């Protein structure tokens, strides 16, 4: 009944229908019937039985309410849902029937109190964007990377994650991974499988994150890397081989390699230092030979033609400084309800950018 009362908020989705024959014409008519339902900001404590056919909804916005749960039966009937936005509620869990949403592309559950995502989310094979910022997530589903092959944006900042599942490395379509403001102890070793990753933000894990895997240097599509405010003392030499890297943020780490005086000179100076260190490792004497693990990574870098152990050509001073910047901090958008904002310290309320933005 509530849906009927909110008819001004129910709009036909803009879609291209029609076609050259009767079957395509029928399909066009069917698509035109899909609707966008906006029930955001209505102080809803629960959802009444709808009078609207749930199979006709392509986008459902329930954000900024007081919902504590979403009925299993309701979710199971949203068979044509493409976008589900439930951010800023009081949800402690998502219904298991979310696995029925085989057409779902965008899921926004930010600003709730969710500790675990249901394993059935693996069935959302069309999912491209997952925003679970500002929750209480302790871990992600173990098989998330094995099933969600189309995922492009994974944003899980401001949670309590201790690690990312090993299967995360199998998200070959992933372009953005935002895991800042967690309790990460380490990253998966085989990150080189993330062939599409352009932005990696693992900043502000503070005293928990102390090192990076060598495989970071095999993220050949990486443009932005933010590891600021951790406890990292040494950058992997393989970072020197990130040819597309434009921004590297390392502020707030007790770095010893490269030393501070090199860091202050900019991105090019840092890469040059790491090149020399890698060259030194690969040509070290037998009495000081690198570990087997390090040898394997140098071998991979040579194989992919990102490292030749030689010197690099000097660039202008302008190029040296370009790309190595401190982020321009600004307040996070209202992803979390005002009632939760007080639990975060001022440091946690600032962010370089809002990475979860619909294209």
From TrEMBL:
Pfam families: LRR_1. It comes from the Eukaryota. Keywords: Leucine-rich repeat, Repeat. InterPro entries: Leu-rich_rpt, Leu-rich_rpt_typical-subtyp, LRR-SigEffector_domain, LRR_dom_sf. The keyword Repeat applies. The keyword Repeat applies. SUPFAM superfamilies: L domain-like. This is Plant intracellular Ras-group-related LRR protein. It comes from Arachis hypogaea (Peanut).
């Amino acid at each position: 009944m509530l849906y009927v009362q909110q008819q001004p908020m129910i709009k036909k989705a803009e879609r291209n229908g029609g076609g050259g024959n009767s079957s395509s014409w029928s399909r066009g008519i069917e698509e035109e019937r899909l609707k966008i339902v906006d029930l955001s900001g209505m102080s809803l404590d629960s959802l009444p039985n709808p009078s609207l056919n749930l199979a006709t909804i392509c986008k459902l916005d329930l954000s900024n309410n007081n919902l504590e749960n979403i009925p299993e039966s309701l979710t199971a009937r949203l068979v044509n849902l493409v976008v589900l936005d439930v951010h800023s509620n009081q949800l402690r869990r998502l219904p298991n029937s979310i696995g029925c949403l085989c057409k779902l592309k965008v899921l926004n559950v930010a600003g709730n109190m969710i500790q675990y995502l249901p394993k059935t989310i693996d069935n959302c094979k069309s999912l491209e964007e997952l925003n679970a910022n500002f929750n209480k997530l302790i871990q992600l589903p173990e098989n998330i990377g094995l099933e969600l092959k189309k995922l492009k944006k994974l944003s899980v900042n401001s949670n309590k994650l201790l690690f990312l599942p090993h299967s995360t490395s199998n998200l070959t379509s992933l372009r953005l991974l935002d895991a800042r403001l967690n309790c990460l102890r380490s990253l998966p070793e085989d990150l080189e499988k993330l062939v599409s990753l352009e932005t990696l933000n693992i900043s502000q894990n503070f005293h928990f994150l102390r090192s990076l895997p060598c495989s970071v240097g095999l993220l050949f599509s990486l443009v932005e890397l933010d590891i600021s405010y951790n406890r990292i003392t040494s950058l992997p030499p393989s970072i020197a081989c990130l040819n597309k890297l434009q921004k590297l943020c390392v502020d707030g780490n007790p770095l010893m390699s490269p030393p501070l005086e090199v860091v202050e000179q900019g991105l090019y100076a840092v890469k040059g230092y790491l090149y020399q260190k890698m060259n030194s490792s690969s040509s070290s004497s037998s009495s000081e030979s690198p570990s087997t693990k390090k040898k394997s990574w140098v071998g991979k870098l040579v194989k992919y033609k990102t490292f030749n152990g030689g010197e690099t050509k000097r660039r202008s001073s302008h190029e040296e400084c370009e790309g190595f910047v401190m982020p321009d901090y600004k307040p996070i958008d209202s992803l979390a309800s005002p009632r939760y904002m007080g639990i975060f310290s001022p440091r946690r309320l600032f962010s370089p950018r809002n990475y979860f933005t619909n294209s």
